Amino acid sequence: MTSHLDSTAPSTGDRRRRRAYLVEFVPGMVAYVLVLVAALAWGGFDGDSPARFVWALLPVVPMVWVAVAVVRHVRRLDGYQRERTLTALATGFAVAMLAALALGILQSAGLALEGSGFWIYGAGMLTWAVGAAVGSGR
What we know:
This protein is mostly helical. The protein has helices spanning 12-42, 51-57, 60-76, 79-108, 116-136. The two termini are 22 Å apart.
């Protein structure tokens, strides 16, 4: 005999936490995309104006918003969910650091790598997402 408490459906608290996270996270991501598009369109990255550096860093501002949303979300989680989330984050961080080390050594050896920071970021984020998906499937 199984109990109705053994349901795999998200609880009311889980849904409330997810909704709060999305309310904080999604506007930050939308702002990031809009600012990134604006920076790429009007930033003059191929020019020689010092203003291009301000344009280049402008998309980081909404990502601070996103980082705060993630931290607030982790703080709202219960112990089990927090452990799963932090394990996925730690795995993504470790992969990002390994990618940074490998790409840094390759660049020191003379290999020209365009956009290596984006590869590092992508490796960390992809690993975090896969780790979270695998962790939620257990």
